[in-house]
Write a structure and sequence with these properties.
mainly alpha
Length: 81
Amino acid sequence: MTLPMQKGMRTASTDGASADRSSNVVGLIDAVDEKKLYRRIDWHIMPLMFFCYLLQFLDKVLINYANIVSASNQSMALDTH
């Protein structure tokens, strides 16, 4: 997938066979480079997302556990009177 050229971006002149990859078109990313970029971004974001989901899961579990313990303690207090 290539990115469309933005206004004001200039292209390098291509003189037939003398044009190499670096002087083709400024601002375009080929599919291989785009895949590498997405993979780098994924490796930075995914651990953070995993950690956030882990904390959210632990929060839910511990709140439910605290409610159960609190309810059982209250019922025990009512039984002793």
